[in-house]
Amino acid sequence: MARVNELRETLFQTGGGDPYGRIFVVSAFGGITNLLLEHKKSGEPGVYAQFANADNDHGWHDAMDRVVTAMVAAHRKVLDHSADMERANAFVRDRTEGARNCLVDLHRLCGYGHFRLSEHMLQIRELLSGLGEAHSSFVTTLMLQRAGLNARCVDLSGWRDDADLSLDERINSAMDQIDPATEMPIVTGYAQCREGLMREFDRGYSEVTFSRLAALTGAREATIHKEFHLCSADPNLVGVDLVRKLGRTNYDVADQMSNMGMEAIHPKAAKTLRQADVPLRVRNAFEPHDPGTLIDDQPAEEAAVEILTGLDIIALELFEQDMVGVKGYDTTILETLRRHNVRIVSKVSNANTITHYLDSSLKVMRRVEKDLAHHYPSARILARPMSMVSVIGRDLGGLSVLTHGLRTIADAGLAALGASQGPRNVDVQFIFERDDLQPAIRALHRSFIEVPAAEELRKVA
């Protein structure tokens, strides 16, 4: 979104051809949602986190000021007409000051004993999150209108709307009077609805809105525009010239990627598209003539590694000598993790040890350890930071990925602390120390993707 002005003549086709017949769902400009909520990776508090933990008003008010500054800076890079910038500035003032006043009033109200701030935190999170998408939709609409397109800002954020609507009702109500054949709807990725998107999807709500909109409007195809192609590894890590575009894959691979924190699309959004029989395509927005990668339900024509990805994890190990033959340990652990809202990436177990690989922080793990120690006082419970690299493909059968991967890791001077492969042959997971994550991805990518690609080129030559 920060480079949306660069796409005006390509993605939006303002230089010729029919630009209509499409609906665009937009996310916030880069970094804005982090400032509104909290940083997705570092956890640095934004307005929401500052408000939730505020001992005084200064922290979250300062955070809101930073949001205003960032929003204005973002649309100044996109808009080039002074009148449009004035309208965008006014929009930012109206929304941020409205949200600020709402939080002040709520804080004052909860000063009375009958009201609890904790009961309203989800609504606050939704209110703040919607500011980012509403801003980017409004600014993009201004930009396109200035270029001569009949663009319309479609704000699903429910701003100053007291209607109690479901997601489908919210979308249908907004789209009812719009003709995509003559207008270009620019729709907010966040939609305020009775279900509360953030309750289940948190920051994955944009793709849920996107998929539901595609299903309800009977779209011929759903397309996700990204900065890069969906490719064999992170281009910033491995190198743009070394990664390979997938071209085609299936929802099974997309699910494995999502499990590793590298979402092509949220699994619930993919389910909506599959059930509505709407094909999904992931394209590089800056290469509009490239067809990108098609995601469907088709199996691979031949076995191959398609993608390598990884993430930092916490390994939670519970060792209890008396566990053998006793049921209930795993159930208690799972319930504890659920209660602390910890996402499980994978797990392994043996006779007296259960190890969960978790996407969480050490701070949360300390609370989990405390709860488990209460249930199992004689157990040894250990949480330590590690990393996981996953080798993924529609069909890995016959490739000896586990054996070949361990050999590659050893040849690179690295040590795998663990490895696992299921019988379905869609992924193999390797466990490393935190510092070995990136070197391991590069080594495995070179072995599974770059070397076979070079051999294939030599055969063709």
Keywords, please?
single chain, 461 residues, alpha/beta, Carbamate kinase, four-stranded mixed beta sheet
Description:
Helix content is 42%, strand content 17%. It has 461 residues and is an alpha/beta fold. It has two domains: 4-219, 3-Layer(aba) Sandwich (Carbamate kinase); 307-460, VC0802-like (2-Layer Sandwich), CATH 3.30.2130. Helix 6 (167-175) packs across helix 8 (205-217).
Gyration radius, in Å: 24 Å
What distance lies between the first and last C-alpha atoms, to the nearest angstrom? Answer: 41 Å
Number of helices: 15
According to DSSP, the number of beta strands is: 13
Largest sheet: 6 strands, antiparallel
Structural class: alpha/beta
Mean pLDDT: 91
By CATH, the architecture of the largest domain is named 3-Layer(aba) Sandwich
Helix content: 40-55%
Number of domains: 2
CATH superfamily of the largest domain: Acetylglutamate kinase-like
Strand content is 15-25%
Would you summarize the structure shown here?
The protein has 461 residues and is α/β, with parallel strands linked by helices. 42% of the residues lie in helices and 17% in strands.
SSE arrangement:
Blueprint: E1 24-26, H1 32-36, H2 47-52, H3 58-78, H4 82-109, H5 121-146, E2 151-154, H6 167-175, E3 184-188, H7 197-201, H8 205-217, E4 222-226, H9 235-238, E5 248-250, H10 251-259, H11 267-275, E6 280-284, E7 293-296, E8 307-319, H12 329-339, E9 343-349, E10 353-359, H13 362-375, E11 380-392, H14 401-411, E12 418-421, E13 427-432, H15 437-460
Parallel strand pairs: 1-3, 2-3, 4-6, 5-7
Antiparallel strand pairs: 6-7, 8-10, 8-11, 9-10, 11-13, 12-13
Helix pairs in contact: 3-4, 4-5, 6-8, 8-11, 12-13
